[in-house]
């Protein structure tokens, strides 16, 4: 059985590391993994999308539209922008935070989180919305959004927290290991 996970956000949020940790966790548990990133102006807050495909008989790292089992969105507008990848009945795990794009700031407009969450609730089969601002405040770091969202993904049975924690140990600097473990356990 295969799983297709699309991870999306904006540059600087840790989406690429999240994809690497998720991939490593699956590889360490003996599963076949293909992954790819599409990065557009990532250093300037541009869209970043990572495709992670886990399972047998997968021959391309890119998830076809309408085939993602799970979208893990680090930003609500990116979840809405990538919703066409979600399969019918699929799950969206979304950060409740909206990162206002520069164009919105320049024109005096803004995105409304409640409108986006309502749209995602209507469009996705299932939705888990995570208040990562509160998580970051409670954990004392703004750099753990990625692990908080991966921890939320563990609730779905995608992978175990133990597998995720082992992958973190391999990929995260030792100075940040304990903080990342706390982030994975934050959503229970």
Summarize the structure.
Helix content is 42%, strand content 23%. The protein has 188 residues and is α/β, with parallel strands linked by helices.
How does this model look, in words?
The chain is built from eight helices and six strands, in the order E-H-E-E-E-H-E-H-H-E-H-H-H-H. With about 190 residues, the protein is an alpha/beta fold. It starts with a strand and ends with a helix. The mean pLDDT is about 90.
> What gyration radius follows from the Cα positions, in whole Å?
16 Å
Give the SSE order as H and E letters: EHEEEHEHHEHHHH
What strand line-up does the widest sheet have?
2-3-1-4-5-6
Low-confidence stretches: none
How many H/I helices?
A: 8
Strand content: 15-25%
- The number of strands is 6
- Relative helix content: 40-55%
Average predicted confidence as pLDDT? 89
Q: Structural class, from helix and strand content?
A: alpha/beta
Overall 3D geometry?
globular
Q: What is the rounded distance between the termini?
A: 26 Å
Question: Major sheet: size, sense and barrel closure?
Answer: 6 strands, mixed
